[in-house]
Amino acid sequence: YDDRDGWIWFDGKLVPWREANIHVLTHGLHYASSVFEGQRAYGGTIFALARHSERLVNSARILGFDLPWSVAEIDAACIAVMQANDLTDCYLRPVAWRGSEQLGVAAQATKPHLAIAAWPWGAYFGEDALAKGLRLDIAPWRRPAPHTAPVHAKASGLYMIATMSKHHAEARGFNDALMLDWRGQVAEATGANAFFIRDNVIHTPTPDCFLDGITRQTVIEIARKRGIAVQERAIWPEELETFEQFFLTGSAAEIAPVGSAGPWTFEVGALTRQIQKDYSDLVNGRVSNG
Ligand code: PMP
């Protein structure tokens, strides 16, 4: 990802892609004092831009550092980097971290940094998996309890077990992994939230120990506007065999139907396709969310 043409917004300036470098003694690298975002632009408009910028600022605050850029400034920087790279349909990756001014667990003297990159990114799981439904493994790692990690921040450190679970799944031929939480309840995939359908009612785990995704919130609004009941509640894995449909949601993943998770199988059904179309219409500006 580092050796290519293009521009990256870095601490207030657009710099050539290959020159957007940091020092090896960066605190964020050693101690995971780093948070990030991920959002998509459709036809030149970044979907839910301010909500992503707000979450970035909040994630940093949860980890104990304040960004010297406002939400409006981060929004403007995202638009600037998209335009500088001549992109209209792309993924954007803001990342904020503590710098290399101090090294050790204590980091009060470090400076906060922010970089934003943008690049074209097609279907997160590939077109084939989207058509047929994803095959999910059950992750060997569980999402941590809220008092053992900053579970509501989009903090890089929380992705250590996500990458390990994703690699474990891909090595065994799966597209991704479904993660349980510390209690053993269904939580989410390694980078997307989970929704289930039974008898035209939508069920989704309560986000009390994982990210309450912006796509997740959007899908709940879309469904309720259609008059479809949505239940947020605890879901145990034993209940998976009773669900007819299952899909994942995320800014990168969008709406991705699931065909199987561990021993349980699901159909790629009409309601999943409807939600997928409604989401696509919304992000592409074909309907308003008012
Ligand atoms: N959970 C995790 C672990 C994620 O990485 C993401 C992607 N940011 C999500 C859920 C979905 O969040 P969003 O819809 O805000 O992209």
Kindly state the number of beta strands.
16
Largest sheet data? 9 strands, mixed
Ends apart, CA distance between termini: 38 Å
**What are the low-pLDDT stretches, counting only 5+ consecutive residues below 50?**
none
CATH fold-level name of the largest domain: D-amino Acid Aminotransferase, Chain A, domain 2
Per CATH, the architecture of the largest domain is: Alpha-Beta Barrel
How many separate helices? 7
Radius of gyration equals 19 Å
Whole-number average pLDDT?
97
Which ligands are bound? 4'-deoxy-4'-aminopyridoxal-5'-phosphate
H/E element sequence: EEHEEEHHEEHEHEEEEHEEEEH
SS class: alpha+beta
Helix content: 25-40%
Identify the CATH class of the largest domain: Alpha Beta
Strand content: 25-35%
Q: Which overall shape is indicated by the principal axes computed on the Cα atoms?
A: globular
Explain the overall architecture.
By secondary structure, the chain is α+β, with helices and mostly antiparallel strands. The protein has two domains: 7-119, Aminotransferase class 4, branched-chain amino acid transferase, N-terminal domain (D-amino Acid Aminotransferase, Chain A, domain 1); 127-283, Alpha-Beta Barrel (D-amino Acid Aminotransferase, Chain A, domain 2), CATH 3.20.10. Helices cover 27% and strands 27% of the residues. It has seven helices and 16 strands. It has helices spanning 27-31, 49-62, 71-84, 127-132, 160-171, 214-225, 270-283; strands at residues 7-10, 13-16, 34-36, 39-42, 45-46, 90-98, 112-119, 134-138, 176-180, 186-189, 193-198, 201-205, 230-233, 245-250, 254-261, 264-265. Helix 2 crosses helix 3. The longest helix is centred in the first third of the chain and has 14 residues, at 49-62. The radius of gyration is 19 Å and the shape is globular. 4'-deoxy-4'-aminopyridoxal-5'-phosphate binds at residues 38, 188, 191-193, 210-211, 213-216, 249-251.
